[in-house]
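Translate sequence into structure tokens.
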Amino acid sequence: MSFIKVEEFENRIANFFGAPFAVAVDCCTHGLELCLKYNNAEIIKVPKRTYVSIPFLAKKISIQLEWKDEDWNDYYYITNNIIDAAVLWKNNSYIENTYMCLSFQFRKHLNLGRGGMILCPNRKSYDDLKKMSYDGRDPNIPWRDQNISTMGYHYYMTPETAIKGLEKLDSAIKSKPKQWQISDWPDLTKMTIFNKLN
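Result follows.
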């Protein structure tokens, strides 16, 4: 199946959010991981109330975890230019010169079951993150015909998911998103696992 539908979905999402580019990935957490690696982050600052996979990234990629008390709404920064925007759904809401990661998980406004998107600031970041998400390869050329020179991760969005996104997008744009509350997430610092990781 062709990856043209993935690119079409990327362009539609970038246009809706007002971002220069968007890279489709298999989930928001993997998008954040790619951005942290791409920007050589040394620390991740995580609100105590968020999704459990976010602080796990610190251990996974061997960077420092710092908790913060933040009553956030729609999105929050995990570094000075990387944003967890998993629950954000708002036209022209891209923040200039940042990496904003969206989620299309089953509870999100654009529900695809799984998937995410990295809104990114320029063509170079798009090309680099795209390759990283596709095992270091160009998705439009058979990998056996490539001399792969980029460290890659198996984090790409499939064409089937992108097609589902294109089918549901107009309806999602027309409908009102859920307003998430900070109380929708537990205090992660009270969980045993995070006491063990410190």
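Note: The chain has a mean pLDDT of 95.
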